[in-house]
Amino acid sequence: MTIKDTPEEWRVTATATPFRGNKTGVRTDDVVMPDGSVARRDYQVHPGSVAVVALDEDGRVLVLRQYRHPVRQRLWEIPAGLLDVPGENPLTAAQRELYEEAHVKAVDWRVLADVYPTPGGCDEAVRIFLARDLSQAEGERFPVLDEEADMELARVPLQDLLRGVLAGDLHNNCLVVGVLSLTAALAGEGAGSLRPAEAPWPARPFEA
């Protein structure tokens, strides 16, 4: 038996967008259920995101600590950002985010996981990369604003992050998935067995 998610689309009889924000919006669809009834579903429309588990030669992961207003917490996270340009190659976006948030570049890139963080209420798709062979980026640091101006940057051993995830001390979705995925990969066939950085991503098709 193959365990695999599959595409499917139930019929929509009406749709509206009652709210549009700067990057996301809210859509309301009237969806036909299997028994023929119609149910209204509200969800956030999102362009998609990328995130990066940047692993250095000492087995440490580059993490950022940032205030997140919706949950009223300062969370430890991995570098991440929106797919701002429609059709943009997610690897290009991930490389940009690693540079902008940490002023770091990487030589070796792999795909760790593709996830829908909240599929019951948002269509956001996230591709999480593994980046290795790190070095400091050249030139001046990217200017930061708002919450990012107060960010902390650290390199934390992977095993310390794993303990924090399992203890319930770390909550950021991309960090949790990235740490667990990398730990599993390293305990199994190794990082070399991961998908290449340009692997297809049906949730957010991109140009090569």
UniProtKB/TrEMBL annotation:
An annotated GO BP: ribose phosphate metabolic process
MF term (GO), any: hydrolase activity
CDD domains xref list: NUDIX_ADPRase_Rv1700
Gene3D superfamilies, alphabetized: Nucleoside Triphosphate Pyrophosphohydrolase
Domain of life, per lineage: Bacteria
Domain Nudix hydrolase: 44-178
PANTHER family: ADP-RIBOSE PYROPHOSPHATASE (PTHR11839:SF31), UDP/ADP-SUGAR PYROPHOSPHATASE (PTHR11839)
Organism: Streptomyces pacificus
Name the UniProt record assigns to this protein: NUDIX hydrolase
UniProt keyword terms in alphabetical order: Hydrolase
Gene Ontology annotations for the cellular component aspect, listed alphabetically: cytosol
